[in-house]
From TrEMBL, chain A:
Gene3D superfamilies: MetI-like. It comes from Jiella avicenniae. This is ABC transporter permease. The lineage of its organism: Bacteria, Pseudomonadati, Pseudomonadota, Alphaproteobacteria, Hyphomicrobiales. It is found in: Cell membrane. Belongs to the binding-protein-dependent transport system permease family.
UniProtKB/TrEMBL annotation, chain B:
It holds the Pfam family SBP_bac_5. The keyword Lipoprotein does not apply. Keywords: Signal. GO terms for biological process: peptide transport. GO terms for molecular function: peptide transmembrane transporter activity. It comes from the Bacteria. This is Peptide ABC transporter substrate-binding protein. Residues 91-460 form the Solute-binding protein family domain. It is found in: Periplasm. Belongs to the bacterial solute-binding protein 5 family. SUPFAM superfamilies: Periplasmic binding protein-like II (SSF53850). One of its GO terms (cellular component) is outer membrane-bounded periplasmic space. It comes from Jiella avicenniae.
Length: 316, 556
């Protein structure tokens, strides 16, 4: 196990360096750059832009800039945002909680509902429920979130006035209840698609397990349907779900761009888009590194969890 | 309008001589569109209530002297004051200064070289410390500090012998007379010496994210990616503030911005406002006050005059005749913008209303091209001396209405045998070297040519302002006209307003006849606020809605 972990860690570090080099190169080689936004607003001249670029160190050769960024990162300094002059980590931190709240809630909802819809669909295969769930999943998967979000706002905020039209909380309120009320619409809109995804996966996984010999044996032993389901089917069917959840980790922390935009939720998805739009390289690089780390950690955690749950799998 | 160009501060140059000082006739006057009816109640005796302003871009730069975009100025106007401001009538009004320096009141010498500024003695910073002439001196010196990443140095670079005579008076000289300097000072917010002056690294000072100013509102907090909260500065020296709290909310999508205006989540629709397509619905919304407000930005189809296709004036004239601007305005921009023939905003005192009117006439366009010897080739595209009348046209990718306008223009040009292909670029690419160094054939672009209310456009039109030829300005058309250069010098060197006017009138005539760009229309924006929010007055001379936020109040 230790050897496995050490090997993984080593691989991961090499991978991170490669990711950072590629990311840095692609970002900096793309035309434009952090100062081009100022060419638009009151009359920057080339000379002024060149002066600011020089002051920011943007006119140095790329490898030099990368090396400086890299050595600072090794010392724990992620740099400063060009856009708001804050340390990168605190910029990310300030958006992380919003995203965790939204994505956490919606993932919880979608996993809970999705797995049960999947299980029921598999147990009652070809029943009306199964067909309804299948069609429902297809519909949910094909609705654009942006449109669905706006429809929800139109219906529940503009027409009925039940729910707020967006935002994370009422400015000046910020009680738990206030957060909860604001959370309902975006988390459900976001969960809708994921319920569909989870139910499809779960249904397949359960069907897969149900047809295996040990399930038939368990039935033949005279176990109740419930006991077979919980002790044998689910325990096996959930193994691939854990891998899936591990792979979802970067997505959960990466935020949901569209939902965050429609519901003006100040999360990571929007941070990424805004930072990209402003060519805020330090923040984009920070987010890139963070998501690379999360992918690696998510995979590792999933592997370990599966090994713990499933005695057939040994790490090494 | 992030993809439009706004006016530049002109670069200092010897050609220019002081003239405008105190000349309020230079003003752009925005009509009072938000009705100030007789029913308007008096403002409250002490700050009450809160207003939420929605912006579609996020303000992130709070030190007004660091590189920023227009939305950041919304916050600057709330937190800081300049020495004097440009009001909605285009007139300078004293703010931190007790009077606007002019030749008449002795604030500026006859030759424009010696300045004297008198300051108020009753102004306090938000932390309670008194504001003095030292702060003004510090601010101007900060702007030219080689270590400071300063937004703009134009004009300030000319200042020398900056002397604090007393806490309420300072004098300085200009190396050369510079007419637009009052306009620049009107946009230079004064920052505190006793805080920022103490910082070793002013670029990364904590102050930049916890600003202290003299303005009507004080900094409370920023929730990154969401909103900024300010509260009333009860010790404000000027009129107001009448609001207890002021919140700037960032709503990144224009559809959502409008939706939150409808639901009442925001009280005032700020920067980027309501999209023109929503105007018909918006103007009838109950409980909301919505109006069309002209902007100084002029939309044009701009040529790179260095390209062989565009060297022939007949070609440019023909293309103008082939341009159906009224259809573009009516069909794509919902009839809101006003057609124009010039770069000068129609609200300006320098606007020339007598320019020849544009006629949409494809037949005339064809005959002009025939006359000039541009004959259709085998593929139907006109050509002359081996040069095909074919070119690319670029603008910001993602600006949908403008992209549709491009396609419409493409069709119109095709009908007269001109092949315009569309090649749009992301904003960062479009407005980088591609625009600055004239690497385009033609573009569709919106530009505000003026510096505040000053009519000087040397930065854009002077033959010495071509960056592709080593010039300092933004004459990216490479419009190289001796006559224009002469007129700009004239306009910048005369002290008599009428003479100055004559120069700019003539200038507009020359540009109209040369057509380095085909003027299309002057933009209009659809702005709105809840009924009951009083004092929201549009000002065409500033870039942001909240310039007069000190005097906003709720009429309950």
């Amino acid at each position: 196990m230790l050897r496995f972990l050490f090997g993984r860690l080593w691989q991961s570090l090499v991978l991170l360096v490669i990711v950072s080099v590629i990311g840095f190169a692609v970002l900096n080689l793309a035309p434009g750059g952090p100062l081009s936004q100022f060419a638009l607003t009151p009359g920057m001249t080339q000379a002024q832009l060149a002066r600011i670029a020089h002051q920011m160190g943007l006119d140095r050769p790329l490898p030099v800039q990368y090396w400086e960024w890299f050595t600072r990162l090794l010392q724990g300094d992620w740099g400063r945002s060009y856009r708001d002059n804050q340390p990168v980590l605190s910029v990310i931190w300030s958006h992380l909680m919003a995203t965790l709240l939204l994505m956490g809630t919606s993932t919880l909802i979608s996993v809970l509902i999705g797995t049960w819809v999947g299980v029921l669909g598999a147990l009652r295969r070809y029943s009306i429920f199964d067909y309804a769930a299948t069609v429902g999943a297809m519909v949910a998967l094909s609705i654009p979130t942006f449109w669905f979000g706006l429809i929800a706002i139109y219906l529940f905020s503009l027409r009925l006035g039940w729910l707020p039209a967006g935002n994370m909380y009422t400015i000046g309120d910020g009680s738990v209840l206030d957060y909860a009320v604001h959370l309902i619409m975006p988390s459900l809109v976001l969960a809708l698609v994921n319920v569909a995804v989870w139910s499809r996966y779960m249904r397949t996984a359960v069907l897969d397990v149900m047809n295996q010999d040990f399930v038939r044996t368990a039935r033949a032993k005279g176990l109740t349907r419930w006991a077979v389901l919980t002790r044998h089917i689910l325990r096996n069917a959930l193994v691939p779900m854990i891998t899936l959840l591990g792979l979802q980790l970067p997505t959960i922390l990466g935020g949901a761009l569209v939902t965050e935009t429609v519901f003006t939720w100040p999360g990571m998805g929007r941070l990424f888009l805004d930072s990209l739009g402003y060519s805020d390289y330090p923040v984009v690089m920070g987010l890139l590194m963070l998501s690379a780390i999360l992918v690696l950690v998510g995979n590792l955690m999933a592997d370990i969890a599966v090994a713990v749950i499933d005695p057939r799998i040994r790490l090494g | 309008m992030a993809d439009q160009h706004f006016s530049s501060w002109s670069r200092p140059s010897r050609r220019r001589v002081l003239s405008l000082i105190g000349a309020s006739s230079a003003a752009l006057v925005a009509p009072g569109l938000f009705g100030k009816g007789s029913a308007m109640a008096a403002p409250p005796s002490e700050p009450t209530g809160q207003v939420i302003v929605g912006f579609s871009q996020e303000p992130t730069i709070f030190n007004p002297h660091m590189p920023h975009i227009e939305v950041d100025e919304g916050i600057h106007f709330s937190l800081f004051d300049p020495l004097f401001i440009v009001d909605d009538k285009g007139e300078f009004q004293p703010s931190l200064a007790t009077e606007v320096p002019s030749v008449e009141n002795g604030g500026i010498s006859e030759d424009g070289l010696h300045w004297k500024i008198k300051l108020r003695d009753d102004v306090k910073w938000h932390d309670g410390k008194p504001f003095t002439a030292e702060d003004v001196k510090f601010t101007i010196e900060l702007l030219v500090d080689p270590d400071f990443r300063s937004w703009r140095r134009d004009g300030h670079e000319l200042v020398e012998n900056l002397t604090v005579v007393s806490p309420t008076e300072l004098t300085f000289d200009l190396k050369s007379p510079y007419a637009p300097y009052p306009s620049i000072l009107a946009a230079t917010f004064i920052v505190p010496k006793h805080i920022l002056g103490e910082e070793a690294d002013k670029n990364n000072a904590p102050y930049n994210n916890a600003p202290v100013g003299t303005g009507p509102f004080k900094w409370v907090e920023r929730m990154a990616g969401d909103h900024i909260t300010l509260e009333a500065n009860e010790d404000y020296f000027g009129e107001g503030p009448y609001l207890k709290r002021l919140i700037y909310k960032y709503i990144p999508d224009l559809t959502v911005l409008y939706t939150q205006f409808k639901t009442g989540d925001i009280d005032v629709v700020g920067l980027q406002w309501i999209t023109p397509d929503k105007y018909q619905e918006a103007k009838d919304l109950p409980g909301k006050s919505v109006a069309v407000v002209p902007a100084a930005t002029v939309e044009s189809l701009s040529f790179n005059m260095d390209r062989p296709q565009f060297k022939d004036p007949k070609v440019r004239q023909a293309l103008y005749h082939a341009l159906d601007k009224q259809t573009i305005i009516d069909a794509l921009y919902y009839g809101l913008p006003t057609p124009t023939e010039t770069f000068m905003p129609q609200q300006s005192a320098y606007y020339n209303a007598d320019l020849p009117k544009h006629e949409y006439d494809p037949e005339k366009a064809k005959s002009l091209l025939d006359e000039a010897g541009w004959m259709p080739g085998g593929d139907g595209i006109r050509e002359k001396d081996g040069v095909k009348l074919a070119f690319t046209n670029s603008t910001t990718a993602g600006n949908h209405i403008r992209e549709q306008a491009q396609q419409f223009i493409q069709q119109s040009f095709k009908e007269i045998g001109v092949d315009m292909s569309i090649s749009n670029l992301p904003p960062a690419v479009m407005w980088g070297d591609y625009w600055m160094m004239s690497k385009f054939d033609s573009v569709v672009v919106g530009i505000n040519f003026l510096t505040g209310s000053d009519p000087d456009v040397s930065n854009y039109l002077a033959p010495t302002s071509i960056p592709a030829k080593g010039g300092a300005g933004q004459n990216t058309w490479q419009y190289d006209s001796e006559e224009v250069g002469k007129l700009l010098d004239e306009g910048g060197s005369t002290f008599v307003t009428e003479e100055r006017k004559a120069a700019y009138m003539k200038l507009q005539e020359v540009v109209r006849s040369d057509l380095p760009f085909l003027p299309m229309f002057q933009y209009a924006t659809v702005r709105g606020h809840k009924e009951g929010v009083e004092g929201v007055v549009p000002n065409i001379n500033v870039r942001i809605d909240s310039w007069d936020v000190a005097t906003w109040y709720w009429d309950k």
